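Observation: inputs received (chain + coenzyme A).
Thought: call the complex predictor directly.
Action: predict_structure
Action Input:
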Amino acid sequence: MYPVAIEGPRLVLRELRPDDVESVAKITADAVALEHMPLDYMDHDEAEGYVTQLIEAAEDPSRFVYALAIARPIDDQLLGIAQLSVESFTHRRAELGYLVCPEYWGQGFGREAAALLGNFGFDHLGLARIWAVTAVENTNSARLLDALGFEREGTLRRHLLIHGGWHDAYLYALVRRVSPN
Ligand SMILES: CC(C)(COP(=O)(O)OP(=O)(O)OC[C@H]1O[C@@H](n2cnc3c(N)ncnc32)[C@H](O)[C@@H]1OP(=O)(O)O)[C@@H](O)C(=O)NCCC(=O)NCCS
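Observation:
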């Protein structure tokens, strides 16, 4: 499905564009933003390559990665990225991830973006299960998932290699009863 645009009460999820590179590069070079993320810091060129890769994945006719810009409607400012990666269309499950620029944290944008993308996954991609993993130290992410009704299903030991160190992670999931046909 392309292009995707999802409107929420305070923000819009839209496809990434080449002119988002500056905003994305700001986030992917930020030590606070990436503290709990298994993602290497990126310089400008690497961020450009990352955005290009996500745009190409979006345009793929057999698309399975929905990495969308979290944008402020009033000026289209990119606040972060939310991503749903379909792991299996057969089993109708996908992984949810999100990253918000720290200057916008604590205003509910991450929660709204995750809720919008999750609902899109259930309603438009026919998913039955959306899961997320989050380093056990990542309390902001855990609180976001708790608030959206995700259930913590267990602890995955040494699951994430983050900036050279191993971290345990919580596995969270939200399921919806859908017909298997
Ligand atoms: C997780 C994340 C997306 C939350 O984004 P956000 O826009 O701040 O989301 P919310 O405003 O809904 O806040 C989520 C929780 O974090 C807490 N929080 C956010 N910013 C905070 C801050 N600066 N200080 C203290 N708590 C903060 C909020 O209190 C909230 O918990 P609560 O609702 O129980 O009070 C954001 O912290 C982030 O991008 N982190 C880095 C990337 C990451 O870790 N992604 C998850 C990996 S899967």
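Thought: report the result.
Final Answer: DSSP finds four helices and eight strands in the chain. Residues 33, 36-37, 97-100, 104-111, 132, 134, 138, 140-141, 143-144, 147 surround coenzyme A (CB under 6 Å).
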